Amino acid sequence: xxxxRLDTCVPMPIEQExxxxxxxxxxxxxxxHGAGMRPMDAYDADGMRFAPFVLLPSTFPxxxxxxxxxxxxxxxxxxxxVAHCHEFLLESLRSTLEVDPFTAKLFNxxxxxxxxxxxxxxxxxxxxSDLMLESGCPLLGKCSAYCCWKQVEVNTIASxxxxxxxxxxxxxxxxxxxxxxxxxxxxxxxxxxxxxLCSGMLKAWEIYGQPKAVILFVxxxxxxxxxxxxxxxxxxxxxxxxxxxxxxxxxQLAEQARxxxxxxxxxxxxxxxxxxxxxxxxxxxYPSEIEWDARLLIEKSRAIKCxxxxxxxxxxxxxxxxLALPGVLEKFLxxxxxxxxxxxxxxxxxxxxxxxxxxxxxxxxxxxxxxFVLKPQREGGGNNVYGKDITDVLxxxxxxxxxxxxxxxxxxxxxxQLNYMLRPGRGNAMYEPVxxxxxLGIYGVVIGDESTIIENKQVxxxxxxxxxxxxxxxVAAGWGALDSPYLF
Length: 488
Hints:
Layout: H1 16-32, E1 36-37, E2 49-50, E3 53-54, E4 58-60, H2 62-83, H3 86-97, H4 101-116, E5 123-134, E6 148-155, H5 164-178, H6 193-208, E7 214-218, H7 226-239, E8 245-248, H8 250-256, E9 257-259, E10 265-267, E11 270-277, H9 289-300, E12 304-306, H10 309-314, H11 317-323, H12 329-332, H13 336-345, E13 349-351, H14 356-367, E14 372-376, E15 385-386, H15 388-397, E16 406-410, E17 417-419, E18 421-422, E19 434-448, E20 453-467, E21 481-483, E22 485-487
Parallel strand pairs: 4-22, 7-8, 7-11, 11-12
Antiparallel strand pairs: 1-2, 3-18, 5-6, 5-19, 9-10, 10-11, 13-16, 14-15, 14-16, 17-19, 19-20, 20-21
Helix pairs in contact: 1-5, 4-9, 6-7, 8-9
């Protein structure tokens, strides 16, 4: 038996003349409506290409989509509580801190804040829970291509695609309409992710209580995924024209930011109410100590952070693996129903610590590497290890504490379906239908402190799709494509 398949939303393949016209129109529509990125192979601040996308929306079961949407507020609650539990963060990350300098640096910053204190107890979480349909489940029925969805990871910092998710649905509404399938548009769910995420930032801005204060975006020195970031700025201005957004790198903040005696964060002449990180999640974002100093300065301030350092740590792979251990969820979700629903979405997650369980996980991975994914404590795509490469990487470190910097996860085998994948730079090349798989992300907003959650809601979704033969699926990193769900 091959990998189970899902039916496409329209008959395939599309007749060639119609396909060529559709592709030309769809590429222009995408570019002219903000589904764009700056070219990574030849950066040009004045240049723009359409972001890779699939021509048709990918089918996704409505029952599983609805379940993911409903569960997001529980995911928000869980990670908010985890972020505020020092004992759990320390115990979960203890072995990783010995061998992963970057995570250790983040944790040292966290401990410094705990020791010296912060002027702002509130946290703003803009969270994205990523999931895939599971087709490799032993309970899978003969008449279905999937059994359920499983969680890939939870993102607590720089959870992107708040704009590119909704605009993908716009592309597909246009394409289906051009093909004469207006009756199918009702199967494309509404997606207000951009408005929801920006409303979360504005809610935090309102709580801060200074009408002239700004929202600070911490960004990379060079931003390729510019539309996704800028549309957040534009939406904030649309929702509240009096709110100003300022973009700065950590290096610029090291030179321009300061704390007043009352711990107000000042950048240039502006007081900062909310700090939103679109950078700061990987080692390259800290080329020297001054960037770490800037991060510490921000953490000490009265500004409301998205995320705080403890929220950043809560999103590490090691913490997520620890949450899957028996009896752990109940510590944070005493409601047995909530804990049970979350437990069902976990796939196998295994520690690689230097103990009996770690040894067992290493043996599993080395004997059947195709069944697993090896994950380091990194965000941003392109960091995971698959298949034969697991044998190479883990084989070198299996007797070293260095393996504790990784976790092992069961590989999810999603159902495949046909689609056309459009990438810039192909000109008039012929497009053929290809097998693809998809990953759904659900967004949540949560605001609160250690004892109280002020706001908790689900606000939208995104879908990324990649070739079924590919391992990674990040669009900004060049492996995946924009997509939207067609609910059946």
